[in-house]
Design a protein that fits this description.
Elements lengths: L9 H8 L3 H9 L6 H14 L5 H9 L2 E8 L3 H14 L4 E8 L5 H10 L4 E5 L5 H8 L3 E5 L9 E5 L1 H14 L5 E4 L7 H14 L6 E2 L5 H13 L6 E4 L2 H13 L9 E6 L12 E4 L2 H13 L9 E4 L2 E3 L10
Helix pairs in contact: 1-2, 1-3, 2-3, 5-12, 8-9, 10-11
């Protein structure tokens, strides 16, 4: 039944065909993204209702930039790496990025709300610090893709690195060098922290080694504190695997400032393979999450024409990048 205007709309067509509005739009434009039976059902409903597309409105919509709203943490270098790659991925696909940062005084919920007020209909959330309930609520108001998180709720799609494999590869690298006393510098309650912590413990026990987790947070200051804690315990382990590069950097610089040879006395491994890790003065061994591939996949999930988001979970392989901060333990 057409709406009160007397003229059938695309909403009427979608309702009559039993599909989403986006699927009806795809079928009526002749684009790919719906099955042939669904396309025929939509076209038949359009013919039956006498639907005629508003060409002028369609042209105006195509001329308007489509917006992808992005939330990220201002203090996390990996997030800025992902943002940089999101710009590259969105370039040329007729989508603009609008950024909204989470800071010490501005929550991720506030950041997302700001984007929704700016009429962003698709949100890309980088390592969101949200509850399942908060994420599910966002999916009722926009299409959502999470990046770098195992948080699942509502119809949000997600793309993340294989953190289980990344941590396992890092432990195996250290073990292959001869390390047996390998500590883990934890990231607290941030995104993926529990996954990486559990992966470390499993990798150690699988190799007959005792896990040693040191509490922390995903900051350089935490890395400094962890280094001081280890030195105060009568000597650090022969190797430390950190939750992220920021912790590893604080740890690395503190050890070196105290005259501890890295990697001679202590090997250090980070996670994220940020730009800082590759600096000539740092040369940190780190696990790469492949920020470029995460960004490309997120944009593909966010911009693919067709069915509504359905809770896809795409896992991207990690890669261990070996540099100068790991080596055999000193005899």
């Amino acid at each position: 039944m057409p709406t009160n205007s007397g003229r059938a709309t695309i909403v009427d067509v979608a309702r009559a065909a039993g599909t989403s509005v986006s699927s009806a739009s795809v079928a009526l434009r002749g684009a790919s993204g719906v099955s042939e039976p669904t396309r025929e059902r939509i076209l038949e409903a359009a013919r039956r209702l006498g639907f005629r597309a508003d060409r002028q409105a369609s042209l105006l919509r195509r001329q308007q930039p489509r917006v992808l709203g992005v939330t990220f943490a201002l203090d996390q270098p990996f997030h800025t790496d992902v943002v940089d790659n999101l710009y590259r991925a969105a370039d040329g696909c007729e989508h603009d990025l609008v950024l909204s940062a989470a800071t010490a005084t501005r929550s991720e919920t506030d950041a997302a709300e700001s984007l929704l007020r700016d009429r962003a209909r698709t949100l890309l959330l980088i390592s969101p610090a949200l509850s399942e309930r908060q994420l599910a609520e966002l999916t009722t108001r926009a299409s959502v893709v999470t990046i770098g998180s195992q948080l699942r709720a509502g119809r949000a799609d997600s793309v993340r690195a294989d953190d289980q494999q990344g941590i396992t590869d890092a432990v195996e690298h250290l073990v292959s060098l001869g390390h047996r006393d390998i500590a883990y510098a934890d990231g607290g309650d941030c995104a993926m922290s529990a996954v990486r912590r559990a992966a470390y413990a499993e990798a150690m026990r699988t190799r007959g080694l005792e896990p040693r987790v040191i509490g922390g947070a995903p900051t350089e200051e935490s890395g400094i504190g962890i280094a001081e804690h280890l030195l105060a315990q009568g000597g650090p382990p022969t190797a430390v695997l950190a939750h992220n590069d920021m912790i590893a950097l604080g740890l690395l610089l503190t050890l070196r400032s105290r005259g501890i040879a890295v990697p001679g006395e202590v090997s250090v491994v980070g996670y994220d393979d940020t730009r800082t890790a590759a600096l000539a003065t740092v040369r940190l061994t780190s696990v790469s999450q492949d920020a470029a591939r995460l960004a490309r996949t997120a944009v593909e999930l966010a911009t693919t024409e067709g069915e509504e988001p359905s809770g896809q979970d795409v896992v991207v392989p990690t890669r261990l990048v070996v540099r100068d901060t790991t080596g055999p333990p000193r005899e």
